[in-house]
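Chapter review: from sequence to fold.
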Amino acid sequence: MKTEYLAKIKKLLSEYEISKTEIDDIVSDYDGMYEDGLAKGMNEEEVQNFLGNPEVIVQDLAEGYERKERLKSGRKLVALSPFISIIIFFILGFGFEKWHPGWMVFLMTPISAVVVEFVARRSKGSLIAMTPFIALIIFLALGFSLGIWHPTWLIFLAIPIVSIVVSAKNKGLWETLTALSPLVALIIFIICGYFGYWHPTWLVFFIVPILGIMNHKDVKKRIIYEVTLLLTIGLYLLVGYISGRWGLGLVVFLLPFAVSLLMNDVKLEVEGKFAWLELSLAILFVIIYIGFGIWLKTWGFLWMIFLLIPMVSIIRKVKGSRKIVALMPFLSLIVFFSLGYFLGAWHVAWMAFLSIPVTGILVGKEKNHK
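The token string follows.
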């Protein structure tokens, strides 16, 4: 029975792009574990139940490896996809006058490559890589068919959301929810703002510290901070709606800071020569955003000022050509939203995001030539 058991593992492993040496090592390891089980007094059936089903074992061991047959047929599909796209494009164009949005069929090539990678490797990374194409198709389809470009662009936030959810297995519940909270808050803020409720909807961003506090190990402090934040938000709304003086209501946000001082949890130890600059900018941007929002109703676009905080950090810390690569997502978002919000050009603004992979490719090629 041992021979058949090990032979099945070896046969299943041989269906993947795994070297013969690796397969032999794996089979040898299971041979040793099989013998150890027998030495402990187990019968062969008990040993096999203990080690597991060969199909399950190989599925776990082969994660991330390409399956030979799937890979071969998949590569043929990817190679054919540009020609298939051209044929479909001309049929839609000459036959039905659908040159636009018929050009979207050319997305078939990169999508098919990602799908083949996902099927062959069963890797989580391929699922994440597929998300931008799915988001782009949904964005363009809704935009061209219904004319709803804003706030449909929020579909692109599915990219980091999927990435966080896929990697959630390695994190705790509250850690995952905390990571998702800024994105969820931004979605709620933009959608409510679209209907004219920028203020006081910006308070939704407090969901980030509220969930973040749940990661605190000290239950007593956790309760105190949660109550403090909720009380602060409540007092701000109370002062604002009763007196109409929202600027005065901002004073209540000193309450969480005061509680942190009393709990000895505030540490203003900022390392680095320019770290104080970043901290000062963050505080300044918060004041500018809330102040101008209340005064000039700039809630809808001034949030982009916060993108300058990580950009300053990148400029200061990242060296060489990688600096522009790290900056490009932020620059692309600023260009995209500015074109859409101020000029109404959502239908072309999405192309700003193409600068991200293009920059990565160009910088990568430069490094390879050096």
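Two observations follow directly from the output. The chain has a mean pLDDT of 80. Residues 89 and 95 are 10 Å apart (CA to CA).
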